[in-house]
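**Fold in tokens:**
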Amino acid sequence: MPPSDPREAPACYVFRVRFRLDTSGGVATDPERFETTVFRRADPPGEPGWLFFRDNCWRGELADKSHFRGVVESELGVPVESVSFSELRIDEDAFAELKAAIAADLDPFNADSVSEVLSKYLGSSIRVA
């Protein structure tokens, strides 16, 4: 069973998120806007969702920020003003598994090498810890 805290997983995606609290009924907050770091477990190769990086990132950035902002709003339950991809944080074993899975089938990535895939989707936003 994977750890419940994505920061403890062998691999996780890291995002910077700015959100606001909507207040009503005579209630106010100060500040109204907050910035936080959001961690999302990266599914291991072969599991549903393991191609998250291919489906959501391009050159180390979110491919569709508007769409992903809506995803994060739904997950956090607050209005999200902005979201940006920071990095894929991954341990050495998980990184080796990811590269092996990519090498086993390059066709879905429209690339000729693992290095090209990693660069194309994650840019330099990979941190092996």
About this structure: The helical segments are 52-56, 65-76, 92-104, 114-122. The radius of gyration is 17 Å. The first strand starts at residue 11 and ends at 20.
